[in-house]
User: What shape does this take?
Amino acid sequence: MKKNVRQIGMMTLLMTSLGCAGGMVMPNQDNLEVKLRRFEVIQASFDNLETEVVVEVLNTSTAAFQAANGVIEVVAEGRAVVDDEGTHLDEADLDAQFSGSKFQGDLASATAIPPQEKTLLRFPVTLKLPDDPKALEHVIGWERVLLSVKGDVKISGKTFTFGGERELGLPVFPEITLLNPQVATVDGGKSGVAFFQVLVKNQNNFEMTVDNFDWGLTLVGKELRALGQGGPEQVPPNSDLQLDDEVPLTRENLGPNVRSILKRHHLEYSVKGFWNIKGVQREFNFDGAIEFAR
Assistant: This one.
């Protein structure tokens, strides 16, 4: 009797093992969906964009898997156009040095894929912007670039592929504005002072380095601030750099008619300057007239 009980127990154990083996869930197209989600910019400059390509894995099974050994290729196609028809490539506006450039990346780390959950995989990819100033200026002028993506990742031994197109915003060159210039008399009208404020606006999420920046001032035809070679300026992310200057108005710089000049109702001015970033140079000019604060 004991022998029969022992045999029944062994058969039950064997049948359970076979059942478990037959019930093992393997990753396949039916229980795993792998798709491209988005680009995230981690750090940026006018040299390159440090990005992460985010890929989503939807596991509808009751088993846990492991993602590893993923690779990705990103191609900068050209200027992205976003309109009522969606996002597409402007084939008439390509750049010979950047359009078609390929960038590679690998899965950041092995990642567990829990059952019945969505899991995000991250692929770091560096997108290098053109070194040539003309090409860089052209590409930045696109405002948005269309990127095509293709890649694959191994999940518990099985290879899954993914791909698609996404558009990504590009860095923005600085915007220069002149803030409300003012002039006031001092010493009973014998002399005066002019107040000028030039604003350098940074609309990027990173600190912007302006390699060279300078501006000059002409008031009533007299050069009061010479335009020089300039120097570097650092503008914090999403901020404005305010550059102030107080210019004395005296006989030395306005001449012997300084008192009659200071009696005018308004004075014409001209502010001219330039900025340079990685060889891309642009000039700015503000002309107008200011009234005295009497």
